[in-house]
Amino acid sequence: MVNSAFPLAYFASLVNNSLHISLPTHLVLLYFLIFLLATLAVVVVGINRGLERISSFVVPLYIFIFLGLAVYACSIGNFKAAVNYLLSFHPQQFTTEMIFAALTYAFFKLNIGMGCMIVYGSYLPFTTPLGRSTFIVLCLDGLVSLLAYFSIYSLLFFNNTQLLTTELTYHLIPNIFFNIPHGITLAILFFLATTLAAWMPTIAFAESVAVIIIERLGVSRITATLLIGIGVILLGMILIFSYDLLYHFVQDLSVKILTPLSVVMIAIFTSWILPKQITFNELKFNVFICKTWLFLVRYIVPTVCLGLLILNL
């Protein structure tokens, strides 16, 4: 076993269970600015020279790290217990809060709520079938999610230990890695992968805003990027210096209201306002699948999202 007293104590000094940041404010602001500059540096050079080049490096590295972590975790951890936990079903846990959390996570993970996939789709060649491309994205996204799951939960049941909590807290994940062989190295790789996973959606969000500013205001990409940077810095400083007061409000606003509401609006536009012949031509599925998709997006998606939105307010 690895002695985890020092790293765990250090980590606990940064973030406690209430999510209160005890790290000095100037360091939080510094890390925020570094992350923001890394994002804007990609956005300012555009899709081709920026995002495509970064994605060609970051995405394979991200998958490779999680694949290695998953293989190692399954080899030394309790893979069987992780599988059983994944496939276990408890009716009492099937609540509206759980469904809402799953939907929100899916919307955020696929960048649907922010409309980023719409922006990316506009750069695709006209011959690209959106239906098949979407299916490939879903499969890869599901694969990465499973790799991340087994990287954590196989080790969570390490030495047949029992799951103590249903939530992965900020303390639980470091505790998993710091108590296994080579745990510190694995923890560094894991948090590197999660940082990359946070970086790519942030680039997507900034790119979608940059495109809107360029098209609506008629400014250059550099100017649009500067405007985004100024706006984000101002909002970021407000959140950093008013963390305890605004964190939960902003989180609830974005997760419980804005994300599902934007999904409903996108569903209404694509299924009711946009001519269905256009969507059918873009999807390039057979008639039955297209009609099924249209029914789901017209009726099921808005009803479910609005219902869960109302129940969780």
Overview of the structural elements:
- The protein has a domain at 5-94 and 127-241.
- Helix content is 77%, strand content 0%.
- It has helices at residues 5-14, 25-43, 46-76, 79-87, 96-109, 116-121, 130-156, 172-177, 183-217, 221-241, 243-273, 276-283, 287-311.
- The radius of gyration is 21 Å and the shape is globular.
- The protein is mostly helical and 313 residues long.
- Mean pLDDT is 82; it is low at 1-9 and 14-21.
Give the SSE layout.
Elements: H1 5-14, H2 25-43, H3 46-76, H4 79-87, H5 96-109, H6 116-121, H7 130-156, H8 172-177, H9 183-217, H10 221-241, H11 243-273, H12 276-283, H13 287-311
Helix pairs in contact: 2-9, 2-10, 3-7, 3-9, 4-7, 5-11, 5-13, 9-10, 10-11, 11-13
The proportion of strand residues reads under 5%
Rounded to the nearest angstrom, the radius of gyration is: 21 Å
Distance between the termini: 45 Å
Number of E strands: 0
Q: Please state the oligomeric state of the protein chains shown.
A: single chain
**How many DSSP helices?**
13
Shape: globular
What characterizes the major β-sheet? none
Q: What string, H for helix and E for strand, traces the elements in order?
A: HHHHHHHHHHHHH
Class per helix and strand makeup: mainly alpha
Runs in which pLDDT lies below 50 for 5 or more consecutive residues are: 1-9, 14-21
Helix proportion range: over 70%
Average pLDDT, rounded to a whole number, is: 82
